[in-house]
């Protein structure tokens, strides 16, 4: 009498008579029937069933590594970033081209950073901090933010001013 625990050949799908043969074939450990084993014998190695490994679970480094800055905390790049970048680069006697190579951006991007025409992204700012040893990223200060709201103009205020209403 046959049981439902019957093994099937992982190549041809036929039921395996006897024990079958467990082999390492093209990077996978499979159990095959004698007929299939005779066809792949040249290209496979015998393997033990205990060697069956669980597939490695892919975990991206982006989720594993701990961020330097707390994402819930607002951060920004300092206003005088262009001066800091230029001064630090010149202090290190580095050319714009050399800095661009280290940042993996074009030299034109570095020129635009130093002229203040282009603000680096947070990731670029982190790289610049690491290369030049300057502090470009600071947490956003929320002190007095709510108190200042009363002094802020809204679009509705501007409309009222233009129409002469108070």
From TrEMBL:
InterPro entries named in the record: Cro/C1-type_HTH (IPR001387), Lambda_DNA-bd_dom_sf (IPR010982), MJ0586 (IPR004451)
Superkingdom of origin organism: Archaea
GO molecular function: DNA binding
Domain HTH cro/C1-type: 85-143
NCBIfam families, A to Z: multiprotein bridging factor aMBF1
Protein name: HTH cro/C1-type domain-containing protein
